[in-house]
Amino acid sequence: MDKRLERILPRVQKPARYVGGEYNEIKKDKKDVELRVAFCFPDTYEIGMSNLGFRILYGIMNNMPGVWCERVFAPWGDMEEELRKADIPLYALESGDPIGDFDVVAFSVGYEMAYPAILNMLDLGGIPLHASQRTELAPLVIAGGTAMYNAEPLADFIDLALIGEGEDEVPELLELYRRAKREGWTKSRFLRAAADIQGVYVPSLYDVTYNDDGTVRAITPLDGAPAKVYKRVVHDMDKSYFPAKTIVPSTEVVHDRVTLELFRGCIRGCRFCQAGYVYRPVRCRSREQAFQYGVEACKDSGYQEMTLSSLSTSDYPGLVGLCDDLEQFCRESHVNLSLPSLRADNFSMDLMQRLQRGRKAGLTFAPEAGTQRLRDAINKNLTEEDLHQSLRTAFSGGWNAVKLYFMLGLPTETDEDVLAIAEMANHALHTWRESATNKNRGVRITVSTSWFVPKPFTAFQWEGQITREEYERRVKLLRNAITAKAVTYNWHDGDTSFLEAVLARGDRRLGKVLELAFRKGAHLDAWSEYFDLSRWEEAFAECGLDPAFYANRVRSQEEILPWSVISCYVSDKYLWHQRELAYQSVPTPDCRTQCSGCGANVVEGGECSRG
Amino acid sequence: MAKLRLLFRKEGRTVYISHLDLLRTFQRVFLREGLVLRHSQGFHPHPLLSFALPLPVGQSSDCELLDFEVDGQVDCAALPENLNRFMPEGIVAVDCWEAVRPIRELDALRCRVELIYDGGVTPETVQAVQDLFARQEIVIQKRTKRKAMADVDIRPLIRSLAFAAEGDALCIDATVAAQNPGLNPALLAVAVETCLPEHAPDFVRVQRLSLMDGQEMPFR
Ligand code: SF4
Questions:
Q1: Among positive and negative, which fits the CA dihedral A275, A279, A285, A287?
Q2: Chain A with chain B: Cβ pairs closer than 8 A
Q3: Phi and psi (nearest 5°) for B210?
Q4: Where in chain B is the domain with CATH 3.30.70.580?
Q5: Structural domain boundaries in chain A
Q6: Rounded to whole angstroms, how far apart are CA atoms A237 and A318?
């Protein structure tokens, strides 16, 4: 180990996260390696190592002969300070080599609040921030992940973005890079060729002009770059790689367990949900294979906890059968099986009770909105009766803590909708009084609200986020309406959600703001310990841009949205129609009941599978 | 099967794994090998697994002992090699046997403390450090269990010391009390820092070498 690092580590919190060496870490002999990838997660080790997508791509890249993919995470503040003081560049865990020495520096970007960490990591690695300052082929800075469906705020910094799930386009891109390296291509030649790979978006190949009012006038492809960049997703889950043998962190991380992914996509079509739209259509792993991977992953890792994961796990067609199979294995091997993201229906509750085996951890439901009208508007298919039936089952089964999640500021929301949240909580309390088997233990009902952030590629991509004053007014309204002692109300701090709303639908001009905020000290803004909105406000003012233009403005149907070069196959026409239905409070059936013609069936080359 | 004892080394990058994380790691390593640990009875059963002397984060060791109980038969001779297939880098199982002697008979710990001086070790430093440990009493400040600072004399916990200058390091080969109370060898460096600030090292490395019983014989 680097002697300088050895001196630092005893002084920082949780040093184990900065050294690597975990079970199943992949080491390669440098003389057999042609292409080195520094795979960066712009957040801490504990968060990054909990991310299944990160593990999948780590495995896929390392399965390529001659390619060595290593992990890099954002250091916590104390470590960053020590690294800077000792002049140690940010390094990859496997080899300890500085990220500036790698061929490709790839970021996995799941959320907008990670943007400052990307700049900070490049800076810590001694890599020039601007793509235009990096004239050589290496290091090539790329980014993928859900947030990259609108990569515009990062356009100045990244060389290219990967749109989609990554499994197919990442190897193709790396092969192209390998060839470019061997044949000594220039960077621009490589980027132009990369743009022909489906799922690759090269921001520098598009010229963006603006109208006087600040909206986009035109986006012009240069040098014959494609007019539309379509996402790339896995077709057949049974043929796709699953990291059954994967790194087991030696120090505790957030999701310290086996995560068994059952399917991609979601049949529900909640109108606010970006993941629900961009990961269409639903693609399921077969029950047999899911079982096999689950068992393999438990055996290999030694984990004693397994969670079934997907956007809406209860919608997995073979769920009961799979749970039957897994339950037996889990009982024999002392593995706890858990189900996240439950829907409030009888089916889920039955399953839950069965798997819980005595452990009565808190139950969580997400009605998202207080009235049926608003739930219909956002297409959240959950009735109050479903919820109360589920609660009845839960309370009579011995649960005594339940969390209910809502959003404030959803399009069409009125005070009546806000107040209905309090009624729902009261109703839940009433249900507990009626059905609890043991009332001595009391009950805890927690209502949590967040501030709705409109996202690109959703039916609400044209909406304005409600203003901060209005958000705070609604919080207060609800707070005053919640009176029962057994009900706790938590609301989300506004600063982060506001900035998220700005960045999520930002254009390229935000690059300047991002860089300035970073220079002012925004480094790890996904963490409230470090986030400070005032830095951003100053940065906006200095750039002469108005954050409200991005967050609170309602867009017209004609407006050219900054991300309009990108397509997730769900057509704008469909999204606009969904928006209109929202305003009429008309729900859309789920994909299994009836196809509503969003356009994503192209991925399946015809009709979406109903399985 | 009876209680078993595993001797293992902890070195290199893994020295930063904390005591609790190491416990968790071993639970998983055993499961990877297909060994189910016996669990305690009671409301919150936990696997029967314990380290003889918890190793402070940052120190390496050649002589860690882990006691554990499993159901079924175990081939002790083959176990270290089998477990090593499933270890994080830097944890190396060396030997395994049936735990006969109780841990309380573990009396002393031999270790190597390297005081590193970036400018090289001067004869004055060697002399000063030797003189320091020749004193009858060596008082340093130590955090008590109640989180307050208290003066403690570490001299009675030191059994023997030998000094040697090697390059930029002043190496102390020390034997210290292992438990009840034991002496964390890192405190030898703290003593130098406290009593001889002008000879404070730039960095300190600690390595456990071996464990001994009250008769100064190896403890197994
Ligand atoms: S094409 Fe139809 S079935 Fe397929 S994802 Fe879109 S709405 Fe659902």
A1: positive
A2: 68
A3: -160, 165
A4: 2-100
A5: 3-230, 237-341+568-611
A6: 14
Domain ranges in chain B with CATH number 3.30.70.3190: 107-212
Mean pLDDT by 10 residues, chain B (220 residues): 92 94 95 89 83 95 96 91 97 96 95 96 95 93 81 93 95 96 95 95 97 94
Contacts of A276 (CB under 8 A, 6+ apart): A265, A266, A268, A269, A270, A311, A458
- Give the three-class secondary structure for A506: coil
Residue with the smallest CA separation from ligand 1 atom 5 is A281
The answer to whether residues A103 and A138 touch, using CB atoms and an 8 Å cutoff, is yes
ipTM of the complex: 0.93
Is B159 exposed, middle or buried, given 0-12, 13-18 or 19+ CB atoms closer than 10 A? middle
Distance from C-alpha of A229 to C-alpha of A435, rounded to nearest angstrom: 54
Question: Selecting from 3.40.190.10, 2.60.40.10, 3.20.20.220, 3.30.70.3190, what CATH number does the domain B107-212 have?
Answer: 3.30.70.3190
Tell me, what amino acid is at A27?
K
Q: How far is residue A311's CA from residue A151's CA, in Å, rounded to a whole number?
A: 23
Query: Reduced to 3 states, what is the DSSP secondary structure of residue A337?
Result: strand
**Tens digit of each residue's pLDDT (9 = 90 or more) over B162-215:** 999 999 999 999 999 999 999 999 999 999 999 999 999 999 999 999 999 999
Nearest to A16 among B12, B21, B87 (CB): B21
Dihedral sign (CA A45, A51, A56, A61):
negative
Say yes or no for a CB contact (<8 Å) between B13 and A25: no
pLDDT, position A177: 98
Q: How many CB atoms lie within 10 A of CB A106?
A: 28
- Amino acid A481 reads A
Longest Cα–Cα distance of chain B, Å, equals 60
| Nearest residue to A368 (alpha-carbon basis) of A305, A434, A312, A424 | A424
In this structure, the residue with its CA closest to atom 1 of ligand 1 is A601
Nearest chain B Cα distance for residue A19, angstroms: 6
A198 C-alpha to center of ligand 1: Å? 21
Q: Residue A519: which residues within 8 A CB-CB, separation 6 or more?
A: none
How many other β-carbons are positioned within 10 Å of the β-carbon of residue B118? 9
The response to whether residue A214 sits with its C-beta less than 6 Å from ligand 1 reads no
Instruction: Give pLDDT, residue A351.
Output: 76
Contact A256, A578 (CB under 8 A): no
Query: Among positive and negative, which fits the CA dihedral A185, A170, A134, A550?
Result: positive
Question: How far apart, in whole angstroms, are the C-alpha atoms of residue B15 and residue B175?
Answer: 21
Alpha-carbon distance B87 to nearest alpha carbon in chain A (angstroms)? 6
Distance CA A426, CA A446 (A): 11
The verdict on a CB contact (< 8 Å) between B58 and A7 is: no
Question: Is the distance from the beta carbon of residue A216 to the nearest atom of ligand 1 less than 6 Å?
Answer: no
Strands (E), A154-252: 160-162, 200-201, 206-210, 216-221, 229-230
State the pTM of this model.
0.95
Question: Cα(A482)–Cα(A472) distance, rounded to whole angstroms?
Answer: 15
Residues 44-63 of B with CB under 8 A from A: 57-58
Of B11, B16, B25, B46, which to mutate for an interface test with A (greatest number of A Cβ within 10 Å)?
B16
Query: Which residues pair with residue A164 across a beta bridge?
Result: A232
Instruction: Count other C-beta atoms under 10 Å from residue A87's C-beta.
Output: 8
CATH of domain B2-100: 3.30.70.580
Measured between CA atoms, the residue of chain A closest to residue B29 is A302
Q: Which residue of B13, B28, B32 is in closest CB contact with A21?
A: B13
CATH topology of domain A3-230: Rossmann fold (3.40.50)
Which of A243, A240, A233 has its CA nearest to residue A282?
A: A233
